[in-house]
Specification:
Number of helices: 4
Structural class: alpha+beta
Distance between the termini: 43 Å
Shape: elongated
Order of helices and strands: HHEEEEEEEEEHH
Mean pLDDT: 88
């Protein structure tokens, strides 16, 4: 439903904006506005509303935050499916000893819960230990993801684990962290970069198309208006639209055990 309101609101606001700007600017620049101005403004508003709503849909339904966002915010990463098993490297600060603990997703294949070999829910840290690395298997063998730490504490709002190739794993911190949170690898993606940049470039093209062939401004004036509105929407409007249309995360719980 928020997307419907976004489409209707953007189209209506665009119609009013384009009609008003064209009526004023073209009388000043060209002595009279373009013919059939209300129809042209309606087409321009609908084009802008459809494009921006489509962009909002693509970005807010992606598997990562701002994966296809505006230039100064997009995060060009792909996220793997939740891993089935891994090893957690625990450091016990009091004794300075390390322990490698096998962790597996249960029930098998559900991605809803992780447990250690002693059937306890997996936690990143407790009063006794801190998880300093995660070891995952890929096609080339075990890969170690080191925790980003500062004075034996996770840096930032999440626990970030990195490997030399640039791939990362981010998990909630604290003993009360959601045990059902999926462990997934986030890796840089050239395809995501291309699509994000293409959407941003198309955003500028849409503005130019609105002001030149639709509203009938000269090429030079259309370029000027397009750059101004592109910059304004990139910095101010699109981040607000993305936030307003975010899909809330629904906690995943394990299915009830079958009765014998």
């Amino acid at each position: 439903m928020p997307l419907v309101f976004t489409l209707v609101g953007l189209s209506a606001a665009g119609f009013a904006l384009f009609w008003g700007i064209t009526l004023f600017a073209q009388r000043y620049l060209y002595n009279e506005p373009a013919d059939k101005l209300p129809l042209r403004a309606a087409v321009a508003g609908l084009l802008l509303g459809c494009f921006l709503t489509g962009w909002v849909y693509v970005n807010t339904r992606a598997d990562g935050e701002n994966k296809y966002g505006v230039l100064h915010q997009f995060s060009p990463n792909d996220k793997s499916p939740p891993v089935a098993k891994f090893q957690a490297v625990r450091l016990y600060p009091n004794t300075k000893k390390e322990e490698t603990v096998p962790v597996e997703r249960v029930p098998a294949g559900s991605g809803q819960k992780y447990q250690t070999k002693d059937a306890k829910d997996f936690r990143l840290n407790s009063g006794d230990y801190l998880t300093t690395a995660l070891i995952l298997d890929d096609a080339s063998g075990p890969v170690r993801y080191e925790a980003v730490l500062d004075k034996q504490q996770y840096v930032g709002g999440k626990a970030t684990f990195k490997e030399p190739g640039g791939k990362v794993i981010e998990l909630s911190t604290g003993a009360a962290a959601d045990a059902a949170e999926p462990v997934a690898v986030v890796s840089p993606s050239g395809g995501v970069v291309f699509l994000a940049l293409a959407l941003n470039a198309l955003h500028l093209v849409v503005w130019f198309g609105i002001f030149w062939p639709i509203l009938r401004f000269s090429v030079g004036h259309a370029v000027g208006f397009a750059v101004v509105f592109f910059a304004m929407f990139t910095v101010l409007v699109m981040p607000l639209l993305f936030d307003a249309n975010k899909v809330p995360k629904v906690p995943v719980t394990a299915p009830p055990a079958a009765k014998p």
